[in-house]
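Notebook entry, structure prediction.
Reason for the run: the old model in the group folder had no record of what sequence produced it. Starting over properly, with the input documented here first.
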Amino acid sequence: MQNVNSFVVYEVATGIIRRKIQCRPDEIVLNVGEGMIEGDVDLDQYYVDPTQPALVPRMQFAEGVLADGYFTIALPVGTTVLWQSEIYTVDDGELDVLVDQPGVFSLHLSHPHYVHKVVNIENP
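New structure, fully documented this time:
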């Protein structure tokens, strides 16, 4: 009888880990566009490099700068941004948002290869 192992199932296109399972390898059923690799990791801290395939720690987003009423941050292409109830996708490697009112504003950043981050922008 085979031993039960830990596996992660991931999207082949992005490397996002979708679920962790414990079973025998012959019991795994994959959906179209999914791959699997042996391992037991935190889904929020790792992704799969589908070219290897290998488990890779997620990177950290860069820090941004608030200057002259604009918050600017370098972001990888494909980053999803939630800003003031609107969702945007970064397509040029940089995000500039207008912060022209006093207060604290939250910017949510998400990318398959980066740790999810919430940036609180304080404009005095």
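Summary: The chain has a mean pLDDT of 93.
The old model has been moved to the deprecated folder.
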